[in-house]
Amino acid sequence: MTISESTTPSERLPLVEAPALAGFHSDEGRCDLQSPDKEQLLLNKGSKPAHAATSEISFGPFCLLPAQLLLLEGNKLVPLGSRALHILMVWLERPGELVTRQELMARVWPNLCVERATLTVHISALRRALRDGRDGNRFIVNIRGRGYCFVTPTR
């Protein structure tokens, strides 16, 4: 017997009876997950819990908080996806040094095969968010055929 869209919830087997799913509680198909509130993290930036990573990397008007996966411009959150943030973190580990496309892809997408275009899309998102190449800002330099270099000094 297959479950079709016409079955009612009472006709379906309850998920919590399955041993592997016993700890899962759903509410109308949504999983009850808690994630850190980014706005609260911004408000509490100065008061970090003892277990939180204390490293902050500043460059230009931006501040990266790697442990929280946040990029701030002043006190304002810069919206970026996690892959773009990971690319930025790889560059910030070695500012001023060449990082090849292959290394970026291996570090950001470990054990996955992704197209070169995927990396290009995320780097473009980073450049837009940082306003790279506009108003005298220069953060990322492409070294044709070799890779990328983060050229702005960090603090």
The counted number of beta strands is 9
Succession of helices and strands = EEHEEEEHEHHEE
Assembly classification = single chain
State the strand order across the main sheet. 3-4-5-6
Largest sheet: 4 strands, antiparallel
Question: Mean pLDDT, as a whole number?
Answer: 75
CATH topology call of one domain = Arc Repressor Mutant, subunit A
Task: Kindly name the structural category.
Answer: alpha+beta
Top-tier CATH class of one domain: Mainly Alpha
Number of helices in the DSSP assignment: 4
CATH architecture assignment of one domain: Orthogonal Bundle
Poorly predicted tracts of residues: 1-54
Beta content comes to: 15-25%
Q: Please give the alpha-carbon distance between the first and last residues.
A: 63 Å
Q: For the CA atoms, what is the radius of gyration?
A: 21 Å
* The named CATH superfamily of one domain: Winged helix-like DNA-binding domain superfamily/Winged helix DNA-binding domain
Helix content: 25-40%
Shape descriptor: globular
What would you say this structure looks like, in words?
The protein has about 160 residues and is α+β, with helices and mostly antiparallel strands. It has a domain at about 55-150: Arc Repressor Mutant, subunit A (Orthogonal Bundle), CATH 1.10.10. The protein has helices at about 40-45, 80-95, 100-110, 115-130; strands at about 25, 30, 55-60, 60-65, 70-75, 75, 100, 140-145, 145-150. It is globular.
